[in-house]
Write a structure and sequence with these properties.
NAD(P)-bd_dom_sf, 8-stranded mixed β-sheet, Polysaccharide_Synthase-Rel, Nucleoside-diphosphate sugar epimerase/dehydratase, 606 residues, Rossmann fold, transmembrane, alpha/beta, 14% strand, 3 domains, 7-stranded mixed β-sheet
């Protein structure tokens, strides 16, 4: 009904309730004896009626949506009724020099019961009889804390959500067997499978914002034992401010299971390095380079230079940042090949960046085994071009994005990355530019990651191909890797090789199984096929040992490596002679050079 009709209806209803309450109170207290005069009763009734409407209007009882009534609405009713009865008591005292306490107390109780009952009965009727429950999905909410109870309440009040919460799961044993909003807490996370079967659950909703990645993985593994779809609740703040609907759940992603808890960055040091300065990112169209551009943009540089070889990828990141940041800072897309020394020097001289993030590289291990010359041209000579240009024009900081495969490398890609580190370490000894390298392992979702391949294989119906059942790797997410690269750049003093803590290793076959389950299939439906180790691959990626890394982290998850120096003459020989060398000779040379040990160590103490 319209607001005017609704206001009229509630006003008339409340008037009848008020009069009924005071007259029933009079009859209950004095069924035969007339203590009140009709004048006293009339004046008290009129006073109570008028004051009720005044306070009901003040507390907006006529503007509330009673189908969503809760404790807040009940408090408003109690306040309005209490002040109305107090007003009647004051009038009685002034006119009759007496307050009929028992009658007013009884009227107050009946008033609250009848007003509250009239309002809450609509919500009860709506919840029980109006919602088409047969068409709704039955949901199990994991987490009976603030987020979970908010979610349950929103779902109960939202007729269009298509989801009805029927049970809670929570590891707080004090909540077991209790009801929250009429919904029982039926067990802990280890009993998810049992709860799904017992309560005929269609959807499991994880509603614990503070959940660590390890705990998330543990809960998901329990959910994966069921046929119910597993989703994650939107952020509480987004729901509260209306940015997203309560029914806009997101699927669990592999990053939720394998990523680590986010690191708080040193915003001040990064801001000093980036804000108001000119930043150059090479390989800006790649997965890591583009994410570095996104992270850098948050700090409002004066100018952001997007350098890359592929025009489509540079166009995409250019448009993305322009659309998001409009005219906040200058964005310059640059199509250039880092192997073109003249072009790189031209760009560096023209723009004179304050910081260079060098993310351009060939990263695919098996492909570089087949193309060692291209790996040397891009990863070694390309890095040398960009680094020497930075040195020539006294750029403030140069950050090389390296790889954990540069540690005791067994393949061409890792070897060329280690030689690239040697190039910048050599320059760091005499340059005004602060040269540093940042090593990390596999990045979830990057172009060289197995994730896109697995997803395509699952979409095609399988099987998912895994090289070996015992193959393990270290993983981090693209945003985390990019943020830590930027943080390491802010910590640079010159010559360091920063090593990022990659967390716990993950079996590739377990990663494949999780992706299959996240895609809504069973392992049996898709299948897993072992294809054998590819050229240049290790069974296990190595972390630097205690003798190779400083024990103390210079920043959470960032350590400084003790990288060896020396052998630069051999690097120069490789660069000068590699054109005449065969692919086999290049493979042997770069592997030998990258694994050569020197007695001199780079001891950079934080």
């Amino acid at each position: 009904m319209s607001f005017q009709k609704r206001l009229t209806f509630l006003t008339v209803l409340d008037s009848l309730i008020v009069l009924t309450a005071i007259y029933i109170s009079y009859i209950i207290l004095h069924p035969t004896v007339q203590v009140f005069t009709y004048k006293t009763l009339l004046i008290s009734s009129v006073t109570l009626l008028v004051s009720h409407h005044i306070f009901a209007s003040y507390y907006r009882l006529y503007q509330k949506a009673w189908q969503y009534a809760s404790v807040g609405e009940l408090v408003a009713i109690v306040k309005a009724v209490s002040f109305a009865v107090m007003s009647a008591a004051v009038v009685q005292l002034v006119l009759f020099q007496d307050i009929y306490v028992r009658a007013l107390s009884l009227a107050w109780m009946m008033h609250v019961l009848l007003i509250g009952g009239s309002r809450f009965s609509w919500r009860v009727y709506r919840d029980r009889y109006i919602k088409p429950k047969s068409e709704q999905e039955r949901a199990l909410i994991v987490g009976a804390g603030a987020a979970g109870t908010l979610l349950a309440r929103q779902l109960l009040n939202n007729q269009d959500a298509g989801i009805v919460p029927v049970a809670f799961i929570d590891d707080n044993t004090h909540l077991l067997k209790l009801d929250i909003h009429g919904i029982p807490v039926v067990g802990t996370s280890v009993s998810i499978q049992e709860a799904v079967e017992e309560w005929n659950i269609d959807k499991v909703i994880i509603a614990i914002p503070s959940l660590s990645k390890k705990e998330m993985n543990s809960i998901f593994q329990e959910c994966a034992k069921t046929k119910a779809k597993t989703v994650i609740m939107p952020k509480v703040e987004d729901v509260m401010i209306g940015r997203v609907s309560v029914k806009q759940f997101r699927d669990v992603e592999v990053e939720d299971l394998l990523g680590r808890d986010p690191v708080e960055l040193d915003m001040d040091s990064i801001s000093k390095k980036i804000t108001g300065n000119t930043i150059l990112v090479t390989g800006a169209g790649g997965s890591i380079g583009s994410e570095i551009c996104r992270q850098v943009s948050k700090f409002q540089p004066k100018k952001l230079l997007l350098l890359g070889h592929g025009e489509n990828s540079i166009y995409q990141i250019d448009m993305e940042i322009r659309n998001k940041y409009k005219n906040d800072f200058e964005i310059i897309p640059i199509i250039a090949d880092i192997q073109d020394r003249h072009r790189i020097f031209e760009v560096m001289e023209l723009h004179r960046p304050d910081v260079v993030y060098h993310a351009a590289a060939h990263k695919h291990v098996p492909l570089m085994e087949y193309n060692p010359k291209e790996s040397v041209k891009n990863n070694v000579i390309g890095t040398k071009n960009v680094a020497e240009a930075a040195d020539t024009f006294s750029i403030g900081t140069f950050v090389l994005v390296s790889s954990d495969k540069a540690v005791n490398p067994t393949n061409v890609m890792g070897s060329t990355k280690r030689i690239a580190e040697m190039v910048i370490q050599h320059l760091a000894q005499h340059s005004k530019t602060k040269f540093v390298a940042v090593r990390f392992g596999n990045v979830l979702g990057s172009r060289g990651s197995v994730i896109p391949l697995f997803k395509k294989q699952i979409q095609a119906g399988g099987p998912v191909t895994v090289t070996h059942p015992d193959m393990t790797r270290y993983f981090m997410t693209i945003p985390e890797a990019s943020r830590l690269v930027i943080q390491a750049g802010a910590l640079a003093r010159g010559g360091e090789i920063f090593v990022l803590d990659m967390g716990e290793p993950v079996k590739i076959v377990d990663l494949a199984k999780n992706l299959i389950k996240l895609s809504g299939y069973t392992i049996e439906e898709i299948g897993i096929q072992y294809s054998g180790i590819r050229p240049g691959e290790k069974m296990y990626e190595e972390l630097l040992g205690d003798n190779e890394v400083h024990r103390e982290a210079v920043f959470p998850k960032i350590f400084i490596g003790k990288a060896v120096l020396g052998g630069y003459e051999e690097v120069e020989y490789l660069i000068h002679e590699f054109v005449q060398m065969t692919s086999m000779e290049i493979q042997e040379y770069v592997l030998g050079l990258a694994n050569k040990k020197s007695v001199q160590e780079n001891e950079f103490v934080s």
